[in-house]
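Field reference: sequence -> structure
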Amino acid sequence: MDSYLIQVNGHGDHAPVLDVHLKNTGNTISPGKVKGRKPRWAVRASEMSKKTFNPIRAIVDSMKVEPNPKKAMISLSLGDPTVFGNLPTNDEVTRAVKEVLDSGQYNGYAPSVGYHSCREAVAAYYNCPEAPLKAQDVILTSGCSQAIELALAVLANPGQNILVPRPGFSLYKTLALSLGIEVKLYNLLPEKAWEIDLEHLESLVDEKTACLIVNNPSNPCGSVFSKSHLQEILAVASRQCVPILADEIYGDMVFADCKYEPIATLSTNVPVLSCGGLAKRWLVPGWRMGWILIHDRRDIFGNEIRDGLVRLSQRILGPCTIVQGALERILHRTPPEFYHNTLSILKSNADLCYAALSAVPGLQPVRPAGAMYLMVEIEMEHFPEFENDVEFTERLISEQSVFCLPATCFEYPNFFRVVTTVPEEMILEACSRIQEFCEMHYQGAEAAQDLECDK
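Structure field:
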């Protein structure tokens, strides 16, 4: 039988060190000699990390280009409404957090799915007769990104596939590939204000399809689906028995001439996991407060999906407790004029940008109806010196110091995305520079053909 000698060694200012010596009464075990294994360093990145790929980072990081030093940089690339300071959150929002912080009541661990009272507050805020909600239907998450990750992880297994919009938010693909889930891209139609190509969508469904992602309002398109189009989407999901993951982080961020319809309010039989959060509508993306709303009136998800979400949420033990504690006050104290003013600025900027770029030769912007974005088609045949949208946007940076994301980042080449949250004077200056750039490089049909022949 083995015996142990425990000795505490301490010298001077050094903390005591606990030494454990194994005294073996039988054969001696020599250090470094373990039967069947020669010790060596072999530390490698996991397969999951190798499969994790962010298209935006890959493309942007490869753009080795410096802006024009004679012109101040204008970045229309980042979907963070706080960057320029022109869109602060409301005073009631910050006051709610200060009150909670001062109370000292929310400094400890919360349940992994969030405090029950905070889940109740979110349920009450979104509850309606068409899509009733209770606290148990809400999972609080660390931002909408984690809500999407949990929803994907609970619905799909490695080897299954999900249906994702093209163009679409790159995070869907990043998360899916890291989980070993195949991504099938369904087309959106710019000529129909980015409606879904329903025939193409349905053709992609097979026995391994785990869910359909519907992003409305859309990043990167700024589009808002009509009630009738959402009903057509739901009809496909119902026929094919495919649940919906609804990315509705831009919910209610629509311009006055259209209406936002939460997709779960339009169906009683298609189960929906709706992902949302504070980030965009309340202009606090860094606070990382999101949620999943479980809509399952036919009990198709049953307890299995709910229990799965709870287990998955236990990996990081929930979102920030300070923001959780402020949720009810944020949801109910934020004045309506705050939302109205934000949307007024976004619509004004979108209208200015759309009008300005519509007059630029070789560009075809698609008018947005909400969110914070606008997509612009590049008629590449009129810019033959550029191979693609990435080269076009690189040269726009180097010559005009204007940075727009090439839509290759969203699986949609020969477009670029404009973020409309910047101050008005910057939008106008950026559009002016884009016009100057296009006029310099634009080639009419004959000139472009001649240039192609010279290559």
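Note: The longest strand covers residues 182-189.
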